[in-house]
Design a protein that fits this description.
This is ABC-2 type transport system ATP-binding protein. The chain is α/β, with parallel strands linked by helices and 248 residues long. It has one domain (32-55, 76-246): Rossmann fold, CATH 3.40.50.300. Helices cover 38% and strands 28% of the residues. It has 9 helices and 10 strands. The chain has helices at residues 46-53, 75-80, 97-107, 112-126, 141-152, 171-186, 198-201, 221-228, 233-246; strands at 2-17, 20-32, 35-40, 61-66, 69-70, 82-86, 159-163, 190-194, 206-211, 214-219. The strands form 2 sheets. Strands 6-7-8-3-9-10 form a 6-stranded mixed β-sheet, sandwiched between helices. It has a 4-stranded antiparallel β-sheet with strand order 2-1-4-5. Helix 5 (141-152) runs parallel beside helix 6 (171-186) and helix 8 crosses helix 9. The longest helix has 16 residues, at 171-186. The two termini are 35 Å apart. 38% of the residues are buried. The mean pLDDT is 92.
Amino acid sequence: MAADEKVIVADKLTKRFGDFIATNEITFEVSKGEIFGFLGANGAGKTTAMRMLCGLSAPTSGNAQIAGYDIYSQTELIKKNIGYMSQKFSLYENLTILENIEFFGGIYGLTDQQIKVKTEELVNRLGLKSEAKKLVGSLPLGWKQKLSFSVAVLHEPKIVFLDEPTGGVDPVTRRQFWDLIYEAADRGITIFVTTHYMDEAEYCNRISIMVDGRLEVLDTPANLKRSFGVGTMDEVFYQLARSAKRGD
């Protein structure tokens, strides 16, 4: 991880919807190749923040640079330098594996030769060569998610945003999915991931936790457990939620 190169820099990033503040002056930085966990309960502001960082929603106030580009004036350049994957699955189920890879390769601006090489690498790495002409809709969910992630980083983006990527898949497949994440991070791709599985939070280099639109804590899993005097990230999350409920 190249700690000196910041690929996400957010400064007092705020989004209001009328009188409601969805994200309230959140400030943080993420380094190249870092696996950064972005956690919080439903309604905490995670999705709103991610939409701003992806260039899909303009902030009400504050500033941010994503992959070196301004969040207000360079959103199209941001979109070209990121990948995105959601829990709801990001590929076309009525196209084959090969057709999906070729389609998204074209969307990402890869040449025909690059798409050919990337396609061969991808299907071999995932062990899908014999399945390559099958419709994506026929694949088990775990394989769909691994394929979706691999396509999201097909163009070697500087950052890939993962929104609850392993929801609904079994523990073994989740662990295999995280192997793909580690491989991408080793290639210098920054991973920005939301998850509600606290064991997955342990896999991140650093974790931030949103509570009611604010960024309440940000540190390594080990440091957070130490500062809260607990043994698991589940307990950290529980203590924060309990404090928020009491209004501490």
